[in-house]
Amino acid sequence: MSDSNTDWLARVRWDAQGLVPAIAQEVGTGDVLMLAWMNREALAQTAATGQAVYFSRSRGRLWHKGEESGHVQQVHEIRLDCDQDVVLLKVTQMGHEPGIACHTGRHSCFFSVLEGGEWKAVDPVLKDPSSIYK
Asked: Which residues are CB-contacts of 118 (< 8 A; sequence separation ≥ 6)?
């Protein structure tokens, strides 16, 4: 007998490590804020709480976005791509105005642009990371 409350999790195509990439997109602007990874538990918790929970590969554990920084992501919608192997979270980035999603203190993790064969940081640091993380 299956639990219909979690049948939707079975539709996700998890990789060999039991993970799926998750893109966080700002609901108001459409800005792509970050890419992280989710395991089954992280996705289930995100759906249940309405706040983004990821799986940190470097820490080897669940990571509630904003647990240290206070920069929580309020989740408005969860989408699955056509191949069922990428999750898209439509979020409001909380904790600072404008929202800071990146551990570098920037709005988005995608702050570098390829120009003339070099990566150049084009978005400003909104808050010094040393004042965010203890």
From this structure: none
d(CA 79, CA 119): 31
ω into residue 21 within 30 of 0, thus cis? no
pTM: 0.86
φ, ψ of residue 109 in degrees (nearest 5): -75, -15
The CATH superfamily of 7-96 is Phosphoribosyl-AMP cyclohydrolase (3.10.20.810)
pLDDT per residue as tens digits for the range 104-125: 888 888 899 999 999 999 998 9
Q: Where are the beta strands (DSSP E) in the chain?
A: 20-26, 32-38, 53-56, 61-64, 73-80, 87-93, 112-115, 118-121
Query: Which amino acid type is present at position 27?
Result: V
85 vs 90: CA distance, rounded Å: 17
